[in-house]
């Protein structure tokens, strides 16, 4: 049980305790209730300025951080790398210092380099929130995934003992997988990673998870299956012969989905490659909570902004 949140930054879930993760999730539950009110705004961040600084593309994360900040009454500025002075050679740190000179209190950073958010967090007095750094971590994605699991499986205290979660696909290059592994194992879930041996090496077992390459045997065993996108943008060589071959061996096709338990949750952080890692009809089926994940991202990000800015104050 946490009585006082002490972290001004959220750069990853590896360093968080189970109690801290549960505190974030229960705070998000309170903010989800705010979203059901006629007036969906609270004054918690009135007078604060948040900069959404996205050096890589994003739809869900950028928009939900912006909406979360508006709902908390903060002032919001959106920045992309292509229209910033990064293109003229300014460093990331100089850019962030200039944002701070303009009185930014919170910087949300998405960057292609692992450790970019941590680098700023150690050098700035603003709150730094990692919105995805290379293949390292995407903490708010894993928090919203865990929140969605707890909501759908009716686990209000986020005790995931007895729950078996499969993460399927490109684990090697996935920051979403890494953050999910930290959150789920800390909260007691059993986690099994599955995919081609080139993208799901056995060494990942050192993270406290199981590894299998036999998807058909895994499907009937799990309570949740979280599918990951093939991250072409991070791969430097071919890790499987073709997308068609990937789908035939590791895609969640209609036939494979029939092997899942009736109450198995189907998740995907987005963006989806329909017909590659998941059949289009399965993505839109009643067992899919893909859009619930997106909705829950708003409450989770409100909780992160509220707690981290409070710690800084
Ligand atoms: N899941 C996720 O991070 O999506 P975006 O890249 O659209 O933010």
Describe the structure.
This protein has helices at about 20-35, 60-70, 90-100, 115-120, 140-150, 175-185, 215-220, 245-250, 255, 280-285, 290-310, and strands at about 50-55, 75-80, 105-110, 125-135, 165-170, 190-195, 210, 225, 265. Helix 4 (about 115-120) links the parallel strand 3 (about 105-110) and strand 4 (about 125-135). The strands form 2 sheets. A 5-stranded parallel sheet has the order 7-6-5-8-9, covered by helices on one side. A 4-stranded parallel sheet has the order 2-1-3-4. The model has no long low-confidence stretch (mean pLDDT about 95). It is about 35% helix and about 15% strand. It is built from 11 helices and 9 strands. Helix 1 crosses helix 5 (about 140-150). It starts with 17 loop residues before the first helix and ends with a helix. The chain has about 325 residues and is of the alpha/beta class. The radius of gyration is 19 Å and the shape is globular. Bound molecules: phosphoric acid mono(formamide)ester. Phosphoric acid mono(formamide)ester (CP) binds near residues 59, 60, 61, 141 and 269.
What is the radius of gyration computed over CA atoms, rounded to a whole number of angstroms?
19 Å
In this entry the ligands are: phosphoric acid mono(formamide)ester
Count of individual beta strands: 9
Sheet with most strands: 5 strands, parallel
Query: Residue share in helices?
Result: 25-40%
pLDDT < 50 stretches: none
- Choose one word for the global shape: globular
Strand content: 5-15%
Could you say which structural class the secondary elements and strand pairing correspond to?
alpha/beta
Q: Roughly how many Å apart are the termini? A: 21 Å
Strand line-up in the sheet with most strands: 7-6-5-8-9
């Amino acid at each position: 049980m946490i009585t006082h949140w002490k972290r001004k930054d959220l750069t990853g879930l590896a360093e968080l305790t189970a109690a801290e993760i549960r505190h974030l999730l229960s705070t998000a539950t309170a903010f989800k209730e705010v979203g059901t009110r006629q007036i969906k705004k609270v004054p918690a961040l009135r007078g604060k300025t948040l900069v959404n600084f996205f050096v890589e593309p994003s739809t869900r994360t950028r928009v939900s951080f912006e909406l979360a900040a508006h709902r908390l009454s903060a002032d919001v500025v959106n920045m992309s790398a292509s229209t910033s002075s990064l293109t003229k050679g300014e460093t990331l740190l100089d850019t962030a210092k200039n944002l701070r000179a303009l009185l930014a209190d919170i910087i949300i950073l998405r960057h292609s380099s692992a450790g970019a958010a941590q680098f700023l967090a150690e050098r700035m007095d603003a709150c730094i929130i990692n919105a995805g750094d290379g293949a390292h971590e995407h903490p708010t994605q894993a928090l919203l995934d865990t929140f969605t699991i707890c909501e759908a499986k009716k686990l209000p205290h986020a005790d995931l003992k007895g729950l078996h979660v499969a993460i399927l696909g490109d684990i090697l290059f996935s920051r979403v997988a890494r953050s999910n592994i930290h959150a789920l194992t800390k909260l007691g879930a059993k986690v099994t990673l599955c995919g081609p041996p080139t993208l799901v090496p056995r060494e990942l077992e050192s993270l406290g998870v199981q590894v299998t390459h036999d998807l058909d045997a895994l499907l009937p065993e799990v309570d949740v299956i979280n599918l990951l996108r093939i991250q072409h943008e991070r791969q430097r060589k071919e890790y499987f012969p073709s997308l068609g071959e990937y789908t035939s061996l590791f895609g969640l096709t209609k036939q494979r989905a029939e092997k899942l338990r009736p109450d198995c949750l189907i998740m995907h952080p987005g963006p989806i490659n329909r017909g590659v890692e998941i059949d289009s009809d399965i993505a839109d089926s009643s067992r899919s909570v893909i859009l619930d994940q997106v909705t829950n991202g708003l409450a989770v990000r409100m909780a992160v902004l509220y707690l981290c800015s409070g710690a800084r104050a």
